[in-house]
């Protein structure tokens, strides 16, 4: 039996196992092609020179920056170790490699096309930003530092393009490892469930370490470069507390790329999944990932471009934006409190995420492949193994967070402030753990909610849908309570830290909330590892099914796939929670900036004012309209896939008997083309709406002598949109994950097993849930990015001192460029 499993043989009927590549052309980005052509010794010398220059710049800025650079470089070598370890594993029999090559070619081809489109849009927007900065008036900080318009413009555009480039690289890294690890996990599943789990985790860990490390390193190198180049803190130059304001372009570029990567990748993966399931499972009655399904390769490609590439860019943006916003808040608070050395408060976020790389690496290595009894013994629960690693990471994160606060946030003016901020970080870490646990409870089929949902399938398709919707609605309660307690606790701890301004007013409340957000993200690398584990396990299961391995091997990959569904859902819940905490900072930063440039107090938003209340209504409506357009995009693309799959089954009847091969490439081409077109409409809606509304209400405010009306309406819109978005995203994410795992639970043999009427009803629920959890579900995260984008562009608009007509011309041009791109 062992020999049969090792050789991929079994009692099933022998069938053809050759699969055509979707594309024959290499789609590796040119920058990576150039690096591979350089001689190894020359490349080593160049890297050493770069490291020397980087450390010299870091040492000129701050010893803390040197510490951050050291951790990032060590993490780079650790990621190389993980890569070599994963790639050293075998790829299994030839039929597995052929399927993996088809998936890889399709994923890389779509990535090249999608990011080519995004890069063109980014360059157009960079020109617009450069034009705006060259004609707008200098800010008070720039005037004090002697920065001219052109210098400020080129700094911002360079930061924007660097952020966009790094976000794209983060996405590529996530996809690169997944399309190479999937076949190795499939091969390992023929021998051991524990080995397959370890390969999937370490492959996801490589991507996570690179993404987090690149976000930290990018912000740190920009900070150090600007510090040295501008001569910060020398007489007549910029103050160090104002330096983080120059980094906003980096976060803006990352947000821009992540927005369209998430939209395009989400539409691709779920349209292919829905189309494959509706015809393959429901109409033809064939198993999931069956090689006879013409859409199966498109479905497996979608896991990589949607769940790996898009999620890598997404988390990169989240971490970069959180670091920059916390640096700005730390500098502002240090300036108000007249702290002698503010560098600790400014660089604290970089140190926290540097320690994140360390503790997450330990958590990844804690998952080992030893002591596995093999295929004949019961499979150990992979979720328990992953939770053990997460527990190790959490404990180490608590310790390192305490060390970081004592090292960097201790000040003689308030000796106990560091302890309050350490407790804020503990609040954030506990919030992250609570979100992971709550999402797991509602989406894992080992718990009652999913089993109840599966039981509802026994009475038909309609009752399954009703039960899934009610489960999703119920799942919003506990997370909202957790977020509420976290915000109040963190704000109160920061407020009572003892840090006060010249007037004796406490100033640490907002920074306490920022520290709690950092605490939530202090294990981000391990959480991203669990997220990347999901699509890799899903792809491995598809390769096993398509290469027609024994049922015992498929059982292992099915267990890993079900756990992967839960880890993907918990990661999205984690992202929603961190975005909710960060959004509170966004509102405050927005009002502070408007007050600073308008020289008018702006402390509150009164929704009793009719125009402001209308802004809130429009913001709430934006969430529902955006989600509707995202689901509609999936539906339209899925219809094209369904029609194509039906056509192939009709015109090629030999497909069902393995006498004819499906045209996999046709479905890949349909989904790729449609997803690129469909991502523009919802993305443009989310970016443009706040600017248009603010612009219109500013005109109204001009005629009614209310100079801040436009800014107040936009603030109300962002607030209501975020609140509605939190609830909508929680509902969609949890309901979609629960529907998926209810189907998986039935496929284990419960309630009639595969092919039963109960299973068909569960497949319908899973089909409905697919666009919920992977396309419309990330609506909050995408719309938070859009809020940042709109906030940033609105800031340019509000601070410009040019005439009203020039405003109108430039912003109309911006909108037209965005739409036509």
TrEMBL record:
<feature type="transmembrane region" description="Helical">
    <location>
        <begin position="574"/>
        <end position="592"/>
    </location>
</feature>
<keyword id="KW-0472">Membrane</keyword>
<feature type="transmembrane region" description="Helical">
    <location>
        <begin position="612"/>
        <end position="631"/>
    </location>
</feature>
<keyword id="KW-0406">Ion transport</keyword>
<keyword id="KW-1133">Transmembrane helix</keyword>
<feature type="transmembrane region" description="Helical">
    <location>
        <begin position="389"/>
        <end position="410"/>
    </location>
</feature>
<feature type="transmembrane region" description="Helical">
    <location>
        <begin position="38"/>
        <end position="58"/>
    </location>
</feature>
<feature type="transmembrane region" description="Helical">
    <location>
        <begin position="118"/>
        <end position="135"/>
    </location>
</feature>
<dbReference type="InterPro" id="IPR004131">
    <property type="entry name" value="PPase-energised_H-pump"/>
</dbReference>
<feature type="transmembrane region" description="Helical">
    <location>
        <begin position="243"/>
        <end position="261"/>
    </location>
</feature>
<dbReference type="GO" id="GO:0009678">
    <property type="term" value="F:diphosphate hydrolysis-driven proton transmembrane transporter activity"/>
</dbReference>
<feature type="transmembrane region" description="Helical">
    <location>
        <begin position="476"/>
        <end position="494"/>
    </location>
</feature>
<feature type="transmembrane region" description="Helical">
    <location>
        <begin position="199"/>
        <end position="223"/>
    </location>
</feature>
<feature type="transmembrane region" description="Helical">
    <location>
        <begin position="64"/>
        <end position="87"/>
    </location>
</feature>
<feature type="transmembrane region" description="Helical">
    <location>
        <begin position="683"/>
        <end position="703"/>
    </location>
</feature>
<keyword id="KW-0812">Transmembrane</keyword>
<dbReference type="GO" id="GO:0016020">
    <property type="term" value="C:membrane"/>
</dbReference>
<dbReference type="GO" id="GO:0004427">
    <property type="term" value="F:inorganic diphosphate phosphatase activity"/>
</dbReference>
<dbReference type="GO" id="GO:0012505">
    <property type="term" value="C:endomembrane system"/>
</dbReference>
<keyword id="KW-0460">Magnesium</keyword>
<dbReference type="Pfam" id="PF03030">
    <property type="entry name" value="H_PPase"/>
</dbReference>
<feature type="transmembrane region" description="Helical">
    <location>
        <begin position="506"/>
        <end position="528"/>
    </location>
</feature>
<keyword id="KW-1278">Translocase</keyword>
<keyword id="KW-0813">Transport</keyword>
<feature type="transmembrane region" description="Helical">
    <location>
        <begin position="155"/>
        <end position="179"/>
    </location>
</feature>
<feature type="transmembrane region" description="Helical">
    <location>
        <begin position="709"/>
        <end position="732"/>
    </location>
</feature>
<protein>
    <recommendedName>
        <fullName>H(+)-exporting diphosphatase</fullName>
        <ecNumber>7.1.3.1</ecNumber>
    </recommendedName>
</protein>
<feature type="transmembrane region" description="Helical">
    <location>
        <begin position="417"/>
        <end position="438"/>
    </location>
</feature>
């Amino acid at each position: 039996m062992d020999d049969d499993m090792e050789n991929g043989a079994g009692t099933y009927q022998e069938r053809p196992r050759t699969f055509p590549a979707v594309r024959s052309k290499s789609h590796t980005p040119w920058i990576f092609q150039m690096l591979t052509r350089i001689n190894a010794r020359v490349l080593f010398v160049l890297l050493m020179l770069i490291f020397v220059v980087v450390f010299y710049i870091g040492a000129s800025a701050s010893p803390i920056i040197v510490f951050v650079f050291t951790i990032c470089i060590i993490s780079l070598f650790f990621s190389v170790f993980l890569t070599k370890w994963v790639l050293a594993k075998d790829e299994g029999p030839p039929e597995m490699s052929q399927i993996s090559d088809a998936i890889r070619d399709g994923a890389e081809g779509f990535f090249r096309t999608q990011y080519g489109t995004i890069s063109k849009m980014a360059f157009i927007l960079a020109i617009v930003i450069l034009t705006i900065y060259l004609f707008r008036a200098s800010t008070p900080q720039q005037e004090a530092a002697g920065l001219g318009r052109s210098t400020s413009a080129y700094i911002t555009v360079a930061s924007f393009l660097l952020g966009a480039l790094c976000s794209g690289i983060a996405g590529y890294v996530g996809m690169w490892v997944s399309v190479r690890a999937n076949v190795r996990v499939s091969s390992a599943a023929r021998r051991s469930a524990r080995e397959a789990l370890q390969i999937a985790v370490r492959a996801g860990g490589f991507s996570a370490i690179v993404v987090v490390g690149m976000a930290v390193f990018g912000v740190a190198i920009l900070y150090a470069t600007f510090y040295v180049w501008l001569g910060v803190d020398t007489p007549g130059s910029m103050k160090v507390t104002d330096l983080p304001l120059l980094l906003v372009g980096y976060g803006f570029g990352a947000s821009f790329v992540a927005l369209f990567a998430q939209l395009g990748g989400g539409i691709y993966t779920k349209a292919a999944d829905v189309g494959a399931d509706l015809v393959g499972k429901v109409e033809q009655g064939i198993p999931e990932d069956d090689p006879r399904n013409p859409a199966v390769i498109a479905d497996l490609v979608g896991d990589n471009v949607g769940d790996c590439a898009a999620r890598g860019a997404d988390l990169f943006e989240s971490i970069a934006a959180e670091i920059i916003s916390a640096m700005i808040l730390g500098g502002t608070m240090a300036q108000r409190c007249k702290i002698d050395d503010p560098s600790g408060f400014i660089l604290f976020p970089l140190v926290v995420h540097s320690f994140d790389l360390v503790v997450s690496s330990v958590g990844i290595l804690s998952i080992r492949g030893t002591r596995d009894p093999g295929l004949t013994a019961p499979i150990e629960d992979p979720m328990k193994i992953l939770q053990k690693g997460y527990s190790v990471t959490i404990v180490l994160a608590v310790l390192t967070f305490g060390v970081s606060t004592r090292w960097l946030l201790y000040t003689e003016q308030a000796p106990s402030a560091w302890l309050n901020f350490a407790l804020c970080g503990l609040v954030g870490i506990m919030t992250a753990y609570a979100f992971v646990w709550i999402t797991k409870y509602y989406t894992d089929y080992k718990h009652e909610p999913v089993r109840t949902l599966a039981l509802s399938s026994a009475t038909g398709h309609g009752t399954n849908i009703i039960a899934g919707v009610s489960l999703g609605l119920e799942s919003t309660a506990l997370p909202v309570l957790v977020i509420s307690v976290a915000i109040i606790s963190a704000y109160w701890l920061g407020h009572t830290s003892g840090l006060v301004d010249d007037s004796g007013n406490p100033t640490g409340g907002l920074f306490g909330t920022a520290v709690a957000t950092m605490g939530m993200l202090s294990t981000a690398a391990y959480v991203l590892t669990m997220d990347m584990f999901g699509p890799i396990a899903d792809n491995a299961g598809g390769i096993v099914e398509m290469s027609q391995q024994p049922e015992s091997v498929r059982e292992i990959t099915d267990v890993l796939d079900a756990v992967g569904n839960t880890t993907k859902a918990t990661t999205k819940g984690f992202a929603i929670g961190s975005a909710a905490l960060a959004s509170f900072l966004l509102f405050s930063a927005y009002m502070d900036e408007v007050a600073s440039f308008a020289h008018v107090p702006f402390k509150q938003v009164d929704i009793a004012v009719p125009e402001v209340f209308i802004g809130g209504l429009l913001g709430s409506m934006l969430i529902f309209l955006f989600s509707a357009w995202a689901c509609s995009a999936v539906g339209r693309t899925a219809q094209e896939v369904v029609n194509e799959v039906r056509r192939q089954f009709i015109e090629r009847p030999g497909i069902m008997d393995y006498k004819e091969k499906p045209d996999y490439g046709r479905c890949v081409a349909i989904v790729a083309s449609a997803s690129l077109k469909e991502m523009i409409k919802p993305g443009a809606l989310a970016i443009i709406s706040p600017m248009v509304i603010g612009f219109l209400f500013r005109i109204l405010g001009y005629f009614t002598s209310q100079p801040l009306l436009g800014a107040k309406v936009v603030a109300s819109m962002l607030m209501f949109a975020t609140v509605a978005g939190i609830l909508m995203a929680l509902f969609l994410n949890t309901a979609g994950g629960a529907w998926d795992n209810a189907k998986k639970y039935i496929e284990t043999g419960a309630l009639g097993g595969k092919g039963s009427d109960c299973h068909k009803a569960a497949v319908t629920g899973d089909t409905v849930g697919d666009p919920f959890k992977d396309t419309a579900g990330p609506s909050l995260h995408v719309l938070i990015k859009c809020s940042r984008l709109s906030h940033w562009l609105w800031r340019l608009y509000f601070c410009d001192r040019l005439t009203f007509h020039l405003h109108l011309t430039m912003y109309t041009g911006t909108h037209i460029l965005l739409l036509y791109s």
